[in-house]
Specification:
Layout lengths: L8 E2 L2 E2 H32 L2 H4 L5 H12 L4 H29 L3 H18 L6 H24 L8 H31 L1 H22 L20 H26 L4 H8 L3 E3 L2 E2 L4 H26 L6 H26 L7 H28 L5 H8 L1 H14 L2 H26 L1 H8 L3
Antiparallel strand pairs: 1-2, 3-4
């Protein structure tokens, strides 16, 4: 399918961006709605002895996993499974981007991915089908993520400086969906039943499909790059750019490791160690903190855009790599807040102020890092492999998912103070590496 983008604009951006952003918001609603519940669901229900034996194919899966890790407690097993799931979700776009570029086209790949994701969410309602459900979600996310993100970049000419703003709007839409999802799906799952939450996530995915179909004519789906079987070749300069991008993407896995724990061990820490009572017999649901994570990004996003615009007018705006390094530093600082809060609490519960401040700092770090790095990849990646490289952006999240799951094994033995201090070091390491490699990476990025 080949669609021609129209020249219409909406608030200074191509009209197609609106449909992509709203589609992404609903897709993220479905994805984060399920993800907000997943670790709690595995710990409290799915991996309990009277349930786990009924999961199709799980005995063999667990045996293979524990051959590598050794025996796992319920918490450690949930952390490992979550880490594997998230890592595969974000590895999939590398293959999915290639499929979109070479075989199906981006629009068909997005639609097929959305159908797989909807099926996966509804299958989560059946406990025995857990592995089948997450497999469908992994396949669907692989087809959808990279291709939908690539369609944002395709709306703009290569030299159009609005591209950064377009990706910031796209990431803002992600956070709209991620903000609403735990409030609805998380509350339904925690208070009324796990499967109500998973069902709501499936409905969100269906709405995303409907909106995407309405906006297809405003998108730009370039011709498939498979001219009579000819191989697309990169010149020496383009290979250098690809290598430099891969180095940066590997470093981004450090801040994504911290971000991944917000959905992995962090909910368990909040539930056990944070004082969630706010008076009048009211207690904050654990999943609402994941909504707070997204709310902070929504509030800070326009401020961040205005800040960088003001800096640009004065000729003082830092380059993209510096912004990402600052973001990594903020991720490290945020984890120090959790470690410090636990230390100050002693034997008491941690004040709710500490996780709130944590999300404020993490949100700012996210805005400095995630949309900026993705826009950089979109701008400098060679045209022949652009969608595939945008898919490769998620390689950082793939590594982070594996790493966060592996680190989850140490949550119980290290205890919260040491566990969060470890993650602070991971975030700060990313900042240091980007500063060390700033000059050589900038040299290659400047060639495009």
């Amino acid at each position: 399918m080949s669609n021609i983008a129209t020249p219409k604009e909406f608030f200074g951006h191509p009209k197609g961006l609106t449909y992509i952003a709203v589609t992404e918001a609903w897709e993220r609603f479905s994805f984060y709605g399920m993800q907000a519940l997943l670790v709690l669901y595995m710990n409290d229900r799915l991996f309990q002895p009277d349930v786990i034996d009924g999961l199709w194919g799980f005995d063999g899966f667990r045996m293979a996993l524990e051959t590598v890790t050794g025996p796992l407690s319920i918490q450690a097993l949930a952390a490992q499974v979550f880490g594997i799931y998230v890592s595969l979700v974000y590895f999939g776009p590398i293959v999915g981007g290639l499929i979109g570029d070479r075989l199906l086209g981006r629009t068909k790949a997005v639609l097929l991915g959305a159908v797989f994701m909807a099926a996966g969410h509804f299958l989560m309602a059946f406990e025995a089908a857990f592995l089948l459900a997450v497999s469908a979600l992994i396949i669907g996310a692989g087809l959808l993520k990279g291709n939908l993100a690539a369609q944002v970049g395709a709306l703009y000419p290569k030299e159009d400086r609005r591209r950064d703003g377009g990706y910031t709007i796209y990431f803002t839409a992600i956070n709209v969906g991620a903000f609403i999802a735990p409030l609805i799906c998380g509350t339904l799952g925690e208070l009324y039943g796990w499967h109500y939450g998973f069902g709501a996530a499936g409905v969100g995915m269906i709405l995303g499909i409907v909106i995407y179909l309405k906006g297809v004519r405003h998108l730009n789906d370039p011709p498939l790059k498979r001219d009579q079987g000819e191989k697309v070749r990169l010149n020496g300069r383009e290979w250098q750019v690809v290598a430099a991008l891969l180095v940066m993407i590997l470093i981004t896995s450090l801040f994504w490791t911290v971000q991944s724990q917000i959905w992995n061990t962090y909910p368990l820490w909040v539930r056990e160690y944070v004082n969630l009572d706010i008076g009048g017999g009211l207690s904050v649901p654990v999943t609402w903190f994941q909504s707070l994570d997204s709310l902070v990004v929504l509030v800070l996003a326009p401020m961040t855009i205005a800040f960088w615009k003001g800096m640009s007018k004065r000729g003082a705006e830092p380059v993209d790599l510096t912004k990402v390094a600052l973001g990594c530093s903020l991720f490290g600082l945020a984890c120090l807040l959790l470690s410090g809060g636990q230390m100050l609490a002693g034997a008491d519960k941690v004040s709710i102020l500490f996780p709130v401040l944590f999300h404020v700092v993490v949100g700012l770090g996210y805005l400095f890092s995630a949309p900026v790095a993705l826009a950089l990849v979109s701008r400098v990646a060679p045209a022949a492999v652009n969608a595939m490289m945008i898919g490769a952006y998620y390689l950082g999240l793939f590594i982070a998912g594996i790493t966060s799951g592996w680190l989850g094994r140490f949550y119980e033995p290290l205890q919260p103070i040491g566990f969060w201090a470890l993650h602070a070091g991971i975030g700060l390491t990313g900042a240091v590496l980007l500063m060390i490699l700033h000059r050589p990476l900038s040299h290659y990025f400047a060639k495009i």
